[in-house]
Amino acid sequence: MDLSAFLTGQVMGVALVFARIGGVVMYMPALGEAFVPVRHRIAFALLLSLALYPALPVGPQSLDAPGLLLAALGIELTLGLWIGMTARILLTGLQFAGAQIGMIVGLSNAFAPEIGSFQGSTLISTGLMLGAVALIFAMDLHHLILGAMVMSYEVFPPGALLTGDLAQQIVRAVAQSFYIGLSVAAPFFVMGLLINLGMGLAARMMPTLPVFFVAAPLLIAAGLLVLGVAAPLMLREFAERFAAWLGLLMF
């Protein structure tokens, strides 16, 4: 046996695993957060690829057909990025909810939403997203993430790319994220409506009342009170939806 060819085949096999696992780690919630340095994410993905390689249906790869190998690497990278970004889309439901809550209670700037960032631009959305990350580790959902990485090779065999199904699942993830954001922010919509309606009636009854000066601290206090009561349920809703999505990759 040619040792050089054997080692090369093993290295290319690990590289094929790293293409998918690295794509997942770069965007997966709790693993691919922006405050984790990129080099640390890459190092973790490399170690994870080395550890999972023996358990995955990916054998040694030959360099005799470099075009086919590059195509396989591109497909695996696409699948990894798809898995990580779909999970990230689900997490942005909390960012959307936090932005809505911040605007309702007056703790955000409507002219600087920063929707494209991993963390929210408001304190509330940032707090919700950090709480979701902490909940993922507290509930051992990171073990489910690792299991989903392994089982993804059963759902998407190496070299297979179904673009239609991937696009359809992305659309479903966006709809699910929007639903999560609206459902967890619904109590604040009701609270804001009731308080503003009450302030409007008070302004009608007492025209000299400085409504804006009275309503602002009242909205903030009521919003923080409702947030303190509803935050555990909001995070649990996300955790259940996220775990259910990971379960689709495992079963």
Would you mind describing this structure in some detail?
With 251 residues, the protein is mostly helical. The chain is built from seven helices and no strands.
Give the helix proportion (percent range).
Answer: over 70%
Number of strands: 0
**Beta strand %:** under 5%
- Low-confidence parts: 115-120
Give the CA-based shape.
elongated
Give the termini distance in whole angstroms: 39 Å
Question: What descriptors fit this protein?
Answer:
251 residues, elongated, 7 helices, 77% helix
SSE topology:
Elements lengths: L2 H25 L10 H15 L13 H40 L17 H16 L2 H15 L7 H43 L5 H40 L1
Helix pairs in contact: 1-2, 1-3, 3-4, 3-6, 3-7, 4-7, 5-7, 6-7
Membrane topology: Multi-pass membrane protein
Main location: membrane
Family: Belongs to the FliR/MopE/SpaR family.
Question: What can be said about this structure in brief?
Answer:
The protein is mainly α and 251 residues long. Helices cover 77% and strands 0% of the residues. The chain has one domain (3-250).
